[in-house]
Amino acid sequence: MSDPTLLTDQRDGVLTLTLNRPDVLNSFTRVMAHAMQAALAHAASDPTVRAVLITGALDFVVEPLRPLFDDIVSASLAVGDDGRYLGQMVDVPPTGESRASALFDYARLHDLDLAEAVAYADSSNDLPMLEVVGFPVAVNPEPRLASIARKRGWLVEDFRTAPGFAHKVLPIGPRWVGAPLDRSAR
């Protein structure tokens, strides 16, 4: 790949894509989307590699990502005859145990061996999915998932602490100068 903001590595039927923009919290750009699309297209030449997004997001939210994946498993809203969303869920969003079930169903349907699969997640809610694949990866994990992943010897990728990352502290209140305000006088 010629785009230095998206690093790729493919070996043994596994394609690894790494965002390389720590200076801006690894935010995603159109250039990176095109680079990812090219990397996935290259991986598609290997019939043993499938890129599947299993997400709790609604289908219309992740639709722009569809060209990047072989399949997307997501929830959807009912659509009326006039093309407007009706507000009723058609599918349950795959989260927690249901995400693992969605993965099992997908693997069964496509005759895939989950022992050869890679799964990426950032939340301990995704433990059921991570536990059923051969190569679980915790990405920018919450503290509980990070702890579990390290104890189990799983790969942990934390791009928040990459070299060059500028941690921005968010204020939670006004900055005190001198004595604290006396709120009882109100």
Describe, in plain words, how this protein is organized in 3D.
The chain is α/β, with parallel strands linked by helices. Strand 8 (135-139), helix 5 and strand 9 form a beta-alpha-beta unit. The chain is globular. The chain has 3 domains: 1-47, no CATH class; 50-94, no CATH class; 96-163, Rossmann fold. Mean pLDDT is 76; it is low at 181-186. Strands 7-8-9 form a 3-stranded parallel sheet. Strands 1-2 form a two-stranded antiparallel ribbon. It has a two-stranded parallel ribbon with strand order 3-4. It is built from 5 helices and 9 strands. 25% of the residues lie in helices and 24% in strands.
Which keywords apply here?
186 residues; alpha/beta; Rossmann fold; 3 domains; 3-stranded parallel sheet; two-stranded antiparallel ribbon; 9 strands; 25% helix; 24% strand; globular
Task: Please outline the helices and strands.
Blueprint: E1 6-11, E2 14-19, H1 30-43, E3 52-58, H2 59-62, E4 71-75, E5 77-79, E6 85-89, H3 97-109, E7 118-121, H4 127-131, E8 135-139, H5 143-152, E9 155-157
Parallel strand pairs: 3-4, 7-8, 8-9
Antiparallel strand pairs: 1-2, 5-6
